[in-house]
Amino acid sequence: MAIYKDVIETIEMLSKENLDIRTTTMGISLLDCFGDNADRTAQRIYDKITRLAADLVPTAETVSSEYGIEIVNKRISVTPIALAAATQAEDWIKYAKALDSAAREVGVDIIGGFSALVHKGMTKADESFIESVPYALSETERMCSSINLGSTKSGINFDAVKMMGPLIKKTAYLTRDNNSFGCAKFVAFANAVEDNPFMAGAFHGVGEAENVINVGVSGPGVVKTALEGMEGAAADELAEKIKLTAFKITRAGQLIGGEVSKRLGIPFGILDLSLAPTPAIGDSVAEILEVMGLERCGAHGSTAALAMLTDAVKKGGIMASSSVGGLSGAFIPVSEDNRMIAAVEDGCLTFDKLEAMTSVCSVGLDMIAIPGDTPEDTISAMIADEAAIGVINNKTTAVRVVPVYGMKAGDKVDWGGLFGAAPVMEVNAFNSSGFVQRGGRIPAPLHSFKN
Amino acid sequence: MKAIISVIGKDNVGIMYNVSKVLKDCSVSIEDVTQTILKEYFTMLMVVRLDEEKTSFSELQKELQAMAEREGLTLTVQKEEIFDAMHKI
What we know:
Chain A is of the alpha/beta class. Chain A has helices spanning 2-15, 38-52, 56-67, 89-106, 124-139, 158-174, 220-228, 235-264, 285-292, 302-320, 338-345, 351-357, 376-393, 433-436, and strands spanning 20-28, 71-78, 110-117, 143-148, 150-151, 155-157, 186-190, 211-218, 268-275, 329-330, 365-371, 397-404, 412-414, 421-423, 441-442. Chain A folds into two domains: 28-190, Anaerobic Ribonucleotide-triphosphate Reductase Large Chain, CATH 3.20.70.20; 215-438, Anaerobic Ribonucleotide-triphosphate Reductase Large Chain (Alpha-Beta Barrel).
């Protein structure tokens, strides 16, 4: 009757601990849609997406109900749009709108890939694309945008970094009626991965196949519950437990992803096990750190605890599936994690500590509300810092900050739904302009002689 | 195809009967059953085999859920592979 113990454990994970498939993301290559006529290109983008993804949502829902495991989001990622090589702002907006209406037509909540890869340099098209991003974000509803600014192989494109502060501030202004929500749909990356299924940073890389199904699995609540009975256990015992739990979660994702891909007749891409919190109670990464023994997330020791967590999650995931990819680890988006919000409100978690934690989490400074009057160059400088952490340490890092128009440190902003609510955090008030305005390129780092 | 049904509800006369009646009507055979009373709650797990030519999975699910709602039970029905995937190497 051993199976019954397993059945009960699985049912508990699904019903009480928020184990879910966070996203089934269909990657679609648009390279064959790009041409010299913007209207025709936009039409081809719309047609291809609506044709290939027509059955995505119903299929995901059927599989979800048969296995009793919820697939929370159905999404689409596409080839970085900047490769379409338009040169006028209005053309980029046409493409953005084509993506947005295709997403609405097939019923997915978010489409990612309004992106540019400029980690070494920018083409003329990239420059005009970057200028169009704030308008594209404010004129669309379901579309997300990302820009890759640096890589371990090529260093950091400081000219592009310099453009990020103005881009984010402009987006904040254009979406001011909606608490600057446009910024929550934009990510600045270093070492972006081509097969990430999680938004806002998903895009379908140029090294990818025509069409794939990628799956993102989550379950911070499951890990938290697994650790709860382990008072007094040594750190390595916790790591072992996290690994075993990650294994089980990943296997569930592998099964569901494989099934969705089989039924749609589209190859299975990757499985990304990332502990991604939601504002729901018990679905928090910060709470895992609390169960490990920290009074609040942000206390000294948080970086070490998060490092162990991320690493153990990756190890368990890799053992469970040969298709692990994407980001895989633990996310620390402030507004989406109710214990992290509490830690900020209690004064325990500061911007600087978050930055330290991003050196060991799987992404970066995520969903952080900052004062609306934060200078453009300060935002660019934050992005430069974060990119440097990624480039030097050979990991993906990203920045998704929202300078909420008209708000100051201590105010609280509420975006609702999955994006949650966040206290506006204080940022360092000293000036970084002299450095940021230099532009140019930070050379690629040394790969040996590391101390 | 095998599926696993779990039923939890306040202990009452006829829970087993109600579940098996739906299964009979859907031509689903029961391969294994275990049940116990935890405090005042009736808890049951069942392994069943269904012939998809006679009854589709979604039909069985619909019938069972309708019965569960009528009788005030919490019921899940899931394909067996999910448990194998998670707990077997």
